[in-house]
Amino acid sequence: MYLQALAAAGAEAVFIGPEESVNDSVSRYAGFLIPGGGDIDPLLYNEEKIAEFDLEEAQRVDFDMALFHAARERGKPVLGICYGMQLINVAMGGTLFQDIAIQIGGAIKHREGRHAVKVGNNPFFGSGSYEVNSYHHQSVKGTGAGLDAFALSADGVIEALYAPGCRFLLGVQWHPERMNNGISETVFESFVGACREHA
Predict the structure, then answer these.
(1) 168 contacts 190 by C-beta, under 8 angstroms
(2) From the centroid of its chain, how far is CA 8?
(3) CA separation for the pair 122, 75 (Å, rounded)
(4) Cα–Cα distance, 174 to 181 (Å, whole number)
(5) What is the pLDDT of residues 71-101, one digit of tens each?
(6) 113 pLDDT band (50/70/90 cuts)?
């Protein structure tokens, strides 16, 4: 679905992983999408575990962290989706809610289904209310340095953030590759447009 969504936006994409060289990859590709995945170990944001986890493999997390920092240093566009958004936030010094249901009173159901998000001013798509899908139990708590949240669900969970100081650094908590709701297509179109400018 990621490949299809990027192709629809006019990009040719390939999957890369820990077997690849970070430096070679940052030199070779115009931009990077960090897709969904498992949970991030809270030790990476200096917390002890207080919930049940389905941890992402450490090898992947280490690779994604190194790739993200290298891409940011080179000014390459980065888009993070679900786990990818959370990884960006942790990489920038932010923290996560380890389990929304446990830590946020009155939270809506985020593990499955759909819900509305309220989108504020941002450089990617129009402000307003949109329906998005939801497949997560963790979310951004404290935003990392230089990151601004611009979309929230009704319970206050951060659903999108970006870095105003970067040419393109965007994270969304929903899975835009799995739905058509106006802003999801624009997520990929904006990302691909930024990649073209850098190519």
Answers:
(1) yes
(2) 20
(3) 19
(4) 11
(5) 999 999 999 999 999 999 999 999 999 999 9
(6) very high
The residue count of the chain comes to: 199
Any idea what the Cα angle at residue 127 is, between residues 140 and 162, rounded to 5°? Answer: 35
CA-to-CA dists, residue 112 to 13, 98, 145, angstroms: 28, 17, 30
Helix locations, the chain, DSSP H:
2-8, 22-28, 58-73, 83-91, 100-103, 183-198
Whether the CB-CB separation of 114 and 131 falls below 8 Å is answered with yes
- Over residues 132-157, the pLDDT tens digits come to 999 999 999 999 999 999 999 999 99
Residue type, 2: Y
Token readout for 83 is 């786990």
Say whether pLDDT at 199 is over 80.
Answer: no
Active-site residue set: 82, 175, 177
pTM: 0.97
Which band of pLDDT confidence, cut at 50, 70 and 90, is reported for residue 181? confident
Contacts 24+ apart (CB under 8 A), 140-143: 140/85, 140/86, 140/89, 140/94, 140/95, 140/96, 140/97, 140/173, 141/94, 141/95, 141/96, 141/97, 141/103, 142/94, 142/95, 143/89, 143/92, 143/94
Give the Cβ contact number of residue 198 at 10 Å.
Answer: 14
pLDDT in tens, 36-52: 999 999 999 999 999 88
